[in-house]
Amino acid sequence: MRHLLTITDLSLPEFETILRRATDMKLGPDRYIRALYEQVLLMIFEAPSLRTRLSFETAMTQLHGHAINYYTIHSPWGAGKESIEDVARTLSRYCNAVSVRMFSHEELTKLAVHAEVPVINAMTNVGHPCQILGDFLTMKERFGRETGLTIAYVGDAKNNVTYSLMRAAVMTGNQLRIGCPASEDYSPDPAVTDELASIEGSGSVSVTPDPAAAVRDAHVVYTDSWMSYRVADEEKERRLGDLGPYRVTESLMALAREDAVFMHCLPAWRGHEVTEGVIDGRQSIVFDQAENRLHTEKAILFELLGGGEASLPES
């Protein structure tokens, strides 16, 4: 049994296969139209969602399977009336796979240990592998490769997207430069930084408090919201002051390569982490990213559920 709980659950060949499969599914959807016929994906949500729910549900529909949307607030588990172990054993009798968007990675891991079907991390506090696979497909479409790139991430780097980006950069042979305040409130968790040494790959990750140094000559400039789902509203003004120098503006983008692209996993807080001129500008590929969540999630489901024998082009 295989799960996708973190990006490093994939070997590099498996990572590359998902990107190739996603491309093939995007270009030739008719080849896969019944690939997951009558299979059922349970989608469990603790955290709010737009792209995750719509992309996974559309993926199952296009592959002729079915997706069930289920919020933990409606669950005995969410109310503290049932153990996660019993939930895992029960859903395994009904469904072929489960995607989970929740805060605690520890709880997700516990669910996966006791489930008899594949479990997919649709976001936890320590990782967002589905987002990153979609991002790398988008980079590959733009640059013709998903390796040998310089990626700049600027802003609040203490979040799940940054952590998965760090892991993937090392795996795939990219240089990731993180520009964030020199404060534990905004810097990557040291446990994730320490984890990088155990990941096989030729990529590198560096952290600097200087956003210009992070962005200079980069292929990709990436940012995320400064107010994630679990940040209290009363923190807004302090965070705006601390993170203001890391706003992606037209002048900051000008330091990147001429062919550089701007990426954001969305939802965006326009005028805060990024100006409207950048997110709506010619270099922005944020909605390509959003679309590619659909194609990579179709590929993930296909590979985990053994969707068929459809061959792949070499590369």
Write a structural description:
The protein is an alpha/beta fold. The protein folds into 2 domains: 7-127 and 292-305, 3-Layer(aba) Sandwich (Rossmann fold); 129-289, Rossmann fold, CATH 3.40.50.1370. It contains 12 helices and 9 strands. The chain has helices at 12-27, 51-62, 84-94, 105-114, 129-143, 160-172, 190-195, 211-215, 236-243, 250-253, 276-279, 286-305, and strands spanning 40-45, 66-71, 97-101, 119-121, 150-154, 175-179, 204-208, 220-223, 261-264. The strands form 2 sheets. It has a 5-stranded parallel beta sheet. It has a 4-stranded parallel beta sheet with strand order 2-1-3-4, with helices on both faces. Helix 2 links the parallel strand 1 (40-45) and strand 2. Helix 2 crosses helix 12 (286-305) and helix 5 (129-143) packs across helix 12 (286-305). The longest helix has 20 residues, at 286-305. It is globular, with a radius of gyration of 19 Å.
Task: Supply the CATH superfamily name of the largest domain.
Answer: Aspartate/ornithine carbamoyltransferase
Oligomer: single chain
CATH topology grouping of the largest domain: Rossmann fold
Rg over C-alpha atoms, rounded to the nearest angstrom: 19 Å
Please give the order of strands in the largest beta sheet. 7-6-5-8-9
CATH architecture of the largest domain: 3-Layer(aba) Sandwich
CATH class descriptor of the largest domain: Alpha Beta
Our estimate of the beta-strand percent is 5-15%
Number of domains: 2
Average pLDDT works out at 95
Total DSSP helices: 12
Q: Helix and strand string, N-terminal first?
A: HEHEHEHEHEHEHEHEHHEHH
| Helix residue percentage | 25-40%
Please report the distance between the alpha carbons of the first and last residues.
27 Å
Coarse morphology: globular
Tally of DSSP β-strands: 9
